[in-house]
Amino acid sequence: METLTRISIDEFKDVLAGFIGTENYYLHRLPGGLTMKLTDGCKFVKEYGNAYWLFDIILSWQMKLQNQSFQVWKLIKQGDGSWFIQCTDGNDQVVAAQEITYSIFPQDRLELWLVDGVCMLPSEY
User: Fold this and answer.
1) N or C: which end of the chain has fewer CB within 10 A?
2) Which of 75-79, 102-106, 112-116 has the weakest average pLDDT?
3) CA geometry: angle at 43 spanning 40 and 47, to 5°?
4) Is the per-residue pLDDT at 67 higher than 50?
């Protein structure tokens, strides 16, 4: 397994803001054969944000959301240090939600879009 260089929270935010479009797609998979593609920006979030768990959560919901070709996933830090993740259909109708008790994710909020099996930052759409 590749060892990643640690970066500061400010560097993380700066690099994250620079993703526009993608050049590559990376497969994220769960046991049992569930897969989705990640863009360059999502791969960065996964690796440098220590957020493998975030993509596991999104992918684990896909059996229930298989008819939702466009999904907006929002990760929001709560005042007590826990996290809330919810998915809408792009029209603010909540189709999934989950609480996460703890994470060291480097931002207080993040939005990801899952479009036809490809998970991306909104700026990569």
Assistant:
1) N
2) 102-106
3) 140
4) yes
